[in-house]
TrEMBL record, chain A:
<keyword id="KW-1133">Transmembrane helix</keyword>
<feature type="transmembrane region" description="Helical">
    <location>
        <begin position="112"/>
        <end position="131"/>
    </location>
</feature>
<protein>
    <submittedName>
        <fullName>Ribose ABC transporter permease</fullName>
    </submittedName>
</protein>
<keyword id="KW-0812">Transmembrane</keyword>
<feature type="transmembrane region" description="Helical">
    <location>
        <begin position="33"/>
        <end position="54"/>
    </location>
</feature>
<keyword id="KW-0813">Transport</keyword>
<feature type="transmembrane region" description="Helical">
    <location>
        <begin position="202"/>
        <end position="221"/>
    </location>
</feature>
<keyword id="KW-1003">Cell membrane</keyword>
<keyword id="KW-0997">Cell inner membrane</keyword>
Automatic annotation (TrEMBL), chain B:
<dbReference type="InterPro" id="IPR027417">
    <property type="entry name" value="P-loop_NTPase"/>
</dbReference>
<dbReference type="GO" id="GO:0005886">
    <property type="term" value="C:plasma membrane"/>
</dbReference>
<dbReference type="Pfam" id="PF00005">
    <property type="entry name" value="ABC_tran"/>
</dbReference>
<keyword id="KW-0547">Nucleotide-binding</keyword>
<keyword id="KW-0813">Transport</keyword>
<keyword id="KW-0677">Repeat</keyword>
<dbReference type="InterPro" id="IPR003593">
    <property type="entry name" value="AAA+_ATPase"/>
</dbReference>
<dbReference type="InterPro" id="IPR050107">
    <property type="entry name" value="ABC_carbohydrate_import_ATPase"/>
</dbReference>
<protein>
    <submittedName>
        <fullName>Ribose import ATP-binding protein RbsA</fullName>
    </submittedName>
</protein>
C-alpha cells in the first residue's frame, strides 16, 4: 500500500495522459510532448520554489510579480550594458532579495507569510509598472534569447533547466541536513526550535530559494518572448500553488515533496495542451482545471484517510477520521 | 443492587482486520467510580469511543438504564446522559470560557433569536465555582494554561448533567491541589448518583478514588477487582501480564563534583533569586504547584527564555544559554512536558525524529548516510525498547510511551551532561514508566546530571536524590530523598517555609 500512496499523483498523471492520447492522436508524439514540457517549465520552476515555502508551512504569493520585475531588470540591464551575465546576475539578485525580504518579515517580523507576500506582490508589480510605464521592453540580444528558445541535444534548454532543478531539489530534500530541517520546521516549528534548529534561518532560506527560482523562471519566460512584459506572471502564483497541491504537498507544511509538484505541473500543462489541441474555447479552460484540482484533492483526502485506517494502531489511526472527537490515552 | 447505568457486554471491535476489542464487558452503577486500567494499546480508548458513540461495535450489546441501545454518535451519547472529559481538549481557543461551555446550546432569550448572555454567564460562573476555577467566564480559553483548560473541559462536561461521566486522564495536567479539588467534585457526583468511568495511569489516584478496578490487556477483559481488596503490585502485574520488579530502581550515590550551579537566577519575570547546585550523576527533583516557576526554570536553563539576572555555571564556567541550539552545544538537553507540541515532529518518522537533535554523526560530506542513520536508530530502539512495526513509521502512530522514548532517544544522541526531564512519564503506561525510570538510573550512573521536574510526588520521591521545592518563583525547600514526605513537600510548595516542617 505504501508504494500506492507514494505514487498516487503519478497515477493521476498517467490517467490524464491516457485520456489525452485517446482524445487526440497528436498528443502522444515526441514533438508535442516537448512543447508541453517547455510550456510547463516556467510554472514548474516557480512551483519548485513554492514547494519549499509550503513545506515550511508558508506561502509565497509574490512569485508572479517578482517574475515580472526580474524580467524588467534583465531587459533594463541588458539594454544599458549589453552584458548578459550581468543582466542574469542582477535578475537573480532581485529575486533573491525579494525572497529575503519575504522571509525576514515572516520570521523576524512575526507576520503571516500570506500577508507579507500579498504586500510584496503588490510592491513588485508596482515597481515593474513604474519602470516600464506599462510598456513591454524588447530584448534583442540573441545569446540571451537562446535561454528560452535554444536546444541541447534536441531538448529545449528550459526543459533541461527544469529537470536539473527538480533533481537537485529532490536530492537536497531527501539527503541533506537542510532538507531534513525543512520537513522538521514545517512539521513542528516549536519542536524544531527546541531541538536546536535555527528555524528562522530555514524559513528564510526557503523564501530566498522561492524568489531565486521565480527569477530563474523569469529568465526563461523573458527569453522565450524576447521581451519583458510588465503583466507577465499575473496569476502565476495560483498555478504554482495548484501544482504543489496537486502534487500532494500539504498546505499545513512538513509533508510532500518536489516530485509530486513536477507531476502536478505536468498534469496542468497537459490539460492546457489537450484543451488547445481539441480547440476548446480558452475561456472554458479554467473551469476544467478547477474541476480537476478539486477532484484530485478530494480523491487524495479520501485515499489518505483510507490508508490511515489501515495502519498498525487502529485506535490512534481512527482519530483523524473521527474528526474532533478524540479520546486518547489507551 | 440497582440496574447498571451503563452495561456493555461482549463488545468486539476490529479495524480492517486488526482486533482492538475482543469481547469486553463493562458496567457502571449509580454512584460508582470504575477505574479502567491498561497499558497503552490495551483498548481503553477504543472502548471509550464505543461508549461515546464515535465507533459502533461489531458485536456486543450496550444497555443504558437496562434498555438496549445503539449509540449512533456523540450527540446521541450525550442525549443518553453519557459525557466524556477528553484528555486532549476539544476547546476552541478563540472563544471565551462561557462560549466554549455552551457551544451549540447557548441559552436563548425568549423568541430564540438572541443569546441570553446574562444567563450564560451566570451558569458558567456557577459551573466554574463548582470545579474550583477562578477565571472570568469571558476569558478566552486560549489565554488559559493547560490545567485551567482541563478544568473548563470538566465544567463543560458537568453542564450536561450526565448520568455517566468518562474521565480520560483528567489529572494529567493538574497539580496536587487541583487534583484534590477534582476528587472532591467526583465525590459530590458520586453522592448525586452519577456513574464515573475513570482512566488514569496514576495508580495512587485510582486506589484513592475508585470503587472498582477493571483491567484490560490486548483488547481483552482481564479482571474486575474491588479497589479496597486489591493492591498495586497485583494490579500492575495484571496490566502488563508479568511481574514488574524495581518500579523505582535503587539509585547509586552521585559524585561530589558540581556539574551545574545556578546563582540568583531571575528569568521570565517569574524566577526570583533561584540558586542551587547539582552534582555529576545526581537526579535533582524539582517540585512545585502549577505556576511555581518550574517550567520557567527549565526554559531559562535551556535558552528558551532569556535570563534576566544571575549566573549559570557549567563545570565551574559561566555560561548564558542564548538559544536551545546554544544550550545543546553546552551539553544541556530538555525533554519538554508537551510531547506533541514541543518534543516531536509528529509527521516525521522515528528515524528522523531520533536523529534530529544531532545529525552530525550521520552526515558525511553534507549527505545523510542511510546506513549510519539505521545504526543510530537501531541502537536507540534497542536501548529504549521502542516498540514499532518499522522505524520509518511516523511517530504520530506510536503510543504515548513509545513516543516519549523517541524523545528521550533524540536527546541521548546529543550526549548531554545535564538532562532536564519535564514530566517525563506523563501519559505513559506503567511498563514504559518503569523502563524510563531504569534508564534514568543508568544515565545517572554514567555521570549524566538529571533535573527531574514532575507533578507526581511519588515519582519525585522515588527517583530523586534530592528534591527542591518551588513556590512563586522561589525555592522554598530542599529535602534529602530520605527525609522527604508528601506533607513536607506540599507545605513548602504552598508557600510554607522549611523550618515549619523540619
Amino acid at each position: 500500500m505504501a508504494w500506492l500512496n507514494k505514487y498516487r499523483t503519478l497515477f493521476v498523471l498517467i490517467l490524464i495522459v491516457g485520456i489525452a492520447s485517446f482524445l487526440n492522436e497528436a498528443f502522444l508524439t515526441p514533438d508535442n510532448l516537448l512543447i508541453v514540457a517547455r510550456q510547463v517549465s516556467v510554472t514548474a520552476i516557480v512551483a519548485a520554489g513554492m514547494t519549499l515555502v509550503i513545506l515550511v508551512a508558508g506561502i509565497d504569493l509574490s512569485v508572479g510579480s517578482v517574475l515580472a520585475l526580474c524580467g524588467v531588470v534583465v531587459a533594463g540591464v541588458l539594454g544599458s550594458t549589453g552584458n548578459v551575465v550581468a543582466a542574469i546576475a542582477a535578475s537573480l539578485g532581485v529575486g533573491a532579495l525579494f525572497g529575503l525580504v519575504n522571509g525576514f518579515l515572516t520570521t523576524k517580523g512575526g507576520m503571516p507569510s500570506f500577508i507579507v507576500t500579498l504586500a510584496t506582490m503588490a510592491i513588485a508589480r508596482a515597481i515593474t509598472l513604474v519602470f516600464t510605464n506599462g510598456n513591454p521592453e524588447v530584448i534583442r540580444d540573441a545569446s540571451f534569447r537562446e535561454i528560452g528558445g535554444g536546444y541541447i541535444a534536441g531538448i529545449p534548454i528550459p526543459v533541461i533547466v527544469m529537470f536539473v532543478i527538480f533533481a537537485v531539489l529532490y536530492l537536497m530534500l531527501k539527503h541533506t541536513r537542510f532538507g531534513r530541517y525543512i520537513y522538521s520546521v514545517g512539521g513542528n516549528e516549536t519542536a524544531s526550535r527546541l531541538t536546536g534548529i535555527n528555524t528562522d534561518r530555514i524559513i528564510m532560506a526557503a523564501f530566498v530559494l522561492s524568489g531565486l527560482f521565480a527569477a530563474l523562471a523569469s529568465l526563461i519566460y523573458t527569453a522565450r518572448l524576447s521581451s519583458a512584459q510588465p503583466t507577465a506572471g499575473t496569476g502565476l502564483e495560483l498555478d504554482a500553488i495548484a501544482a504543489v497541491i496537486l502534487g500532494g504537498t500539504s498546505l499545513a507544511g512538513g509533508q510532500g515533496g518536489v516530485v509530486g509538484t513536477l507531476i502536478g505541473a505536468f498534469i496542468m500543462g497537459i490539460l492546457d495542451n489537450i484543451l488547445n489541441l481539441m480547440d476548446v474555447n480558452p475561456y472554458y479552460q479554467g473551469v476544467v482545471k478547477g474541476i480537476v484540482i478539486i477532484l484530485a484533492v478530494y480523491a487524495d483526502n479520501k485515499f489518505t484517510s483510507l490508508l490511515r485506517a489501515r495502519r498498525k494502531h487502529p485506535p490512534v489511526a481512527q482519530e483523524k477520521a473521527a474528526g474532533g472527537e478524540t479520546v486518547k490515552g489507551a | 443492587m440497582s440496574v447498571a447505568l451503563l452495561d456493555l457486554r461482549g463488545i468486539q471491535k476490529s479495524f480492517l482486520g486488526v482486533q482492538a476489542l475482543a469481547g469486553v464487558d463493562l458496567h457502571v452503577r449509580a454512584g460508582e467510580v470504575l477505574a479502567v486500567l491498561g497499558e497503552n494499546g490495551a483498548g481503553k480508548s477504543t472502548l471509550m469511543k464505543v461508549i461515546a458513540g464515535v465507533h459502533q461495535p461489531d458485536h456486543g450489546e450496550i444497555r443504558v438504564d437496562g434498555k438496549p441501545v445503539t449509540i449512533k454518535n456523540t450527540q446521541h451519547a450525550q442525549a443518553l446522559g453519557i459525557s466524556i472529559i477528553h484528555q486532549e481538549f476539544n476547546l476552541i481557543p478563540h472563544l471565551s470560557v462561557a462560549e466554549n461551555i455552551f457551544l451549540g446550546r447557548e441559552p436563548m432569550k425568549p423568541g430564540r433569536l438572541l443569546i441570553d448572555w446574562k444567563k450564560m454567564m451566570e451558569e458558567t460562573r456557577a459551573l466554574l465555582k463548582k470545579v474550583g476555577l477562578s477565571v472570568h467566564p469571558k476569558r478566552l480559553v486560549g489565554s488559559l494554561n493547560v490545567a485551567e483548560q482541563q478544568l473548563v473541559e470538566i465544567a463543560k462536561s458537568l453542564s450536561f448533567q450526565p448520568k455517566v461521566i468518562i474521565m480520560d486522564e483528567p489529572t494529567a495536567a493538574l497539580n496536587d491541589e487541583e487534583t484534590h479539588n477534582l476528587f472532591a467534585i467526583i465525590q459530590e457526583l458520586k453522592e448525586a448518583g452519577t456513574g464515573i468511568i475513570y482512566i488514569s495511569h496514576r495508580l495512587e489516584e485510582i486506589f484513592h478514588i475508585s470503587d472498582h478496578i477493571m483491567i484490560l490487556r490486548d483488547g481483552t477483559f482481564v479482571d474486575r477487582l474491588r479497589t479496597d481488596a486489591a493492591n498495586k503490585d497485583q494490579v500492575v502485574a495484571l496490566m502488563v501480564g508479568r511481574e514488574l520488579t524495581d518500579y523505582y530502581p535503587v539509585l547509586a550515590e552521585p559524585s561530589d563534583q558540581v556539574q551545574m550551579e545556578v546563582r540568583n537566577l531571575f528569568a521570565g519575570g517569574r524566577l526570583h533569586q533561584v540558586s542551587f547546585r547539582v552534582h555529576k550523576g545526581e537526579i535533582l527533583g524539582i517540585a512545585g504547584l502549577m505556576g511555581a516557576g518550574r517550567s520557567e526554570l527549565a526554559k531559562a536553563l535551556f535558552g528558551v527564555i532569556p535570563v534576566e539576572g544571575g549566573d549559570i555555571l557549567l563545570n565551574g564556567t559561566k555560561m548564558m544559554p542564548k538559544s536551545p541550539k546554544h544550550a545543546i552545544r553546552q551539553g544541556i538537553a530538555m525533554v519538554s512536558d508537551d510531547r506533541k507540541g514541543e518534543g516531536l515532529v509528529l509527521s516525521m518518522s522515528i528515524e528522523e525524529n531520533l536523529t534530529l537533535a544531532n545529525l552530525d554523526p550521520v552526515i558525511h560530506f553534507g549527505w545523510i548516510n542511510q546506513s549510519k542513520q539505521k545504526e543510530v536508530v537501531s541502537r536507540n530502539m534497542e536501548r529504549l525498547k521502542i516498540k514499532a512495526a518499522s522505524s520509518e513509521l511516523p511517530v504520530q502512530f506510536l503510543s504515548g510511551g513509545n513516543q516519549q522514548k523517541v524523545v528521550l532517544g533524540k536527546w541521548l544522541e546529543t550526549r548531554p551532561q545535564v538532562l532536564i526531564l519535564h514530566e517525563p512519564t506523563r501519559g505513559v503506561d506503567v511498563g514504559a514508566k518503569a523502563e524510563i525510570y531504569q534508564l534514568m538510573k543508568e544515565l545517572a550512573e554514567q555521570g549524566v546530571t538529571i533535573l527531574l521536574l514532575s507533578s507526581e510526588l511519588p515519582e519525585l520521591m522515588g527517583m530523586s536524590h534530592r528534591i527542591l521545592v518551588m513556590h512563586e518563583g522561589r525555592i522554598t525547600g530542599e529535602f534529602d530523598r530520605k527525609e522527604a514526605t508528601q506533607e513536607k513537600i506540599m507545605h513548602c510548595a504552598t508557600g510554607g517555609d522549611q523550618s515549619g516542617v523540619a
